[in-house]
């Protein structure tokens, strides 16, 4: 059962050029409200069904390593210190120091004032530095403050920016306002040398209330140029859920069909076990397709998930579980 008909765009609007659609709130509203509605029961049933799939032996070993490579190892607390960020960055490069075959994580995600510290430790290791910006987690600030926040993080060495949308504006139907802020933040991600940090756009799906709104926010962010769409800040419950992620995966799949451009997906918050991570990987494969089974196109925003992945990985290799304090606590 699928949650919607396989329709990339409303009838009569199939075009990769969105310039006409983004000129006013009214044109955006007509487009976004013309997207196929999400069958809530169908979406939840399909997610539940995919969540029962199991994988064994070598496939599971592959999935555990892939999930580790997809982790954005995250610390976003007021009590974060340079020492904690250095330790987290070291762990991202060497998740299991006793096993050099263990892959690195995708990124370390921190507040903008900690970017330089993470960058110093990570260097050119290949682990990215991601920074939350734009008045995270509320998104309630003037645009010039959001842009300054973004530029500071990029100048300090951030490879990726995780921005939050103005949910109040979105829920009020001020779609052009949200679209234009995303466009402005993406422009602020540009470096002096002409390269650009990647932009992940956070919806805070727990505040969007309906799957239809999740689909609309997904299309709006992609039309504005997001490189990734992300469920949550991790500060609001519910955070990431499998049905919400399924709806977002359908959106990126349909967006590529309509435009030829791939956009990544990042569920964040509440994904704590290897079993849960594998459910998400199965859903990625079945809904969006195997092209998204890559850290360039799918990430987990997590702080506690990594240790369970490492425990399961050790069990697969040695036949026994390590104690819960065998790996460092983050």
Automatic annotation (TrEMBL):
GO molecular function: deoxyribose-phosphate aldolase activity
Similarity annotation: Belongs to the DeoC/FbaB aldolase family. DeoC type 2 subfamily.
UniProt xrefs under InterPro entries: Aldolase_TIM, DeoC, DeoC/FbaB/LacD_aldolase
Broadest EC class assigned to this enzyme: lyase
Coiled-coil annotated residue ranges, if any: none
Lyase listed as a keyword: yes
Pfam families documented for this protein: DeoC (PF01791)
Protein name listed in UniProt: Deoxyribose-phosphate aldolase
Pathway(s) this gene product operates in, as recorded in its UniProt entry: Carbohydrate degradation; 2-deoxy-D-ribose 1-phosphate degradation; D-glyceraldehyde 3-phosphate and acetaldehyde from 2-deoxy-alpha-D-ribose 1-phosphate: step 2/2
Species, as recorded: Nocardioides panaciterrulae
Biological process annotations from GO: carbohydrate catabolic process; deoxyribonucleotide catabolic process
SMART domains on file: DeoC (SM01133)
Record field: compositional bias (Polar residues): 1-17
PANTHER family in alphabetical order: DEOXYRIBOSE-PHOSPHATE ALDOLASE
Chemical reaction(s) catalysed: 2-deoxy-D-ribose 5-phosphate = D-glyceraldehyde 3-phosphate + acetaldehyde
Known EC number: 4.1.2.4
GO cellular component, as recorded: cytoplasm
Start and end residues of each stretch annotated as Disordered: 1-21
Keywords: Lyase, Schiff base
KW Lyase (keyword) present: yes
């Amino acid at each position: 059962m699928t949650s919607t008909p396989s329709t990339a765009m409303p009838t009569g609007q199939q075009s990769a050029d969105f310039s006409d659609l983004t000129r006013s709130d009214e044109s955006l509203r007509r487009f976004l409200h013309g997207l196929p509605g999400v069958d809530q029961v169908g979406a939840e049933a399909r997610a539940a069904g995919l969540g029962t799939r199991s994988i064994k032996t070598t496939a599971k070993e592959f999935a555990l390593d892939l999930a580790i490579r997809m982790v954005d190892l995250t610390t976003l607390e007021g009590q974060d210190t340079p020492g904690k960020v250095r330790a987290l960055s070291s762990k991202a490069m060497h998740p299991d120091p006793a096993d050099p075959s263990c892959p690195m994580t995708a990124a370390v995600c921190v507040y903008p004032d900690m970017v330089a510290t993470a960058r110093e430790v990570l260097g050119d290791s290949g682990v990215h530095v991601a920074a939350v910006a734009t008045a995270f987690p509320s998104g309630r600030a003037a645009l010039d403050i959001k842009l300054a926040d973004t530029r500071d993080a990029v100048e300090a060495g951030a490879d990726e920016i995780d921005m939050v949308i103005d949910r109040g504006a979105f829920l009020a139907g001020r779609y052009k306002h949200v679209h234009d802020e995303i466009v402005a933040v993406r422009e602020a991600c540009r470096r002096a040398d002409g390269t650009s940090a990647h932009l992940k756009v956070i919806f805070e799906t727990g505040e969007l209330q309906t799957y239809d709104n999740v689909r609309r926010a997904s299309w709006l962010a992609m039309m504005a140029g997001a490189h990734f769409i992300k469920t949550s800040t991790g500060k609001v419950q519910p955070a990431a859920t499998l049905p919400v992620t399924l709806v977002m995966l359908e959106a990126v799949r349909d967006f590529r069909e309509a435009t030829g451009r791939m956009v990544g997906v990042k569920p964040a918050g509440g994904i704590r076990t290897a079993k849960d991570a594998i459910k998400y990987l199965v859903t990625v494969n079945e809904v969006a397709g195997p092209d998204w089974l890559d850290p360039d196109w799918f990430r987990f925003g997590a702080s506690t998930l990594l240790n369970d992945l490492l425990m399961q990985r050790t069990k697969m290799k040695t036949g026994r579980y390590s104690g819960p304090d065998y790996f460092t606590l983050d």
